[in-house]
Amino acid sequence: MSADWKLQQALMALRSGANAIMAEDEDAHLSFDDLPDELAAVDKALCQVVRQVQDADDMATAARYRATEATERARRFEARRDRYKGLILAAMDTMGWRKREYPEATISMRAPQPGVQIIDETQLPEGFIRTKREPDKAAIRTALNNGLAVPGAVLSNGLPAVQIRSN
Fold this sequence. Notes:
With 167 residues, the protein is mostly helical. It has a domain at 1-100. The protein is 53% helix and 4% strand. It has helices spanning 3-24, 39-95, 137-145; strands at 99-101, 106-108. The protein starts with a helix and ends in a 22-residue tail after the last helix.
């Protein structure tokens, strides 16, 4: 294979992949239309893709951070709500009120519902136990790598992976 053919194939793969990404994700910005037809163009294109990988990774990290922040904020609001409800309960109980009507809401106290308390889990009948059944992929991989047959499982051909270490 000639270097020119390899260059054409690499550029075609990059352009095709970029077009597919942009068709699925309107926020993706990849364009290889202005690249010269030389070997350095592949390096330039790869650098541009690496920047997009890093940007996408940064955005995913930020989104996870914001999701964590939002979850923590929701927990704080729920704790605040529960403290306020405790105040209402204490005041109504002190006054001996079971129900109060206001323009904002109707407040009523209800009898507590009995909760289930497990004293000894080992004594529970099988019909009252939930068991999550899921494959142990690590054990299956070990067995298959050791040449053992595992009905319902096979090793797949892995795909090449790219590792990017930021400088």
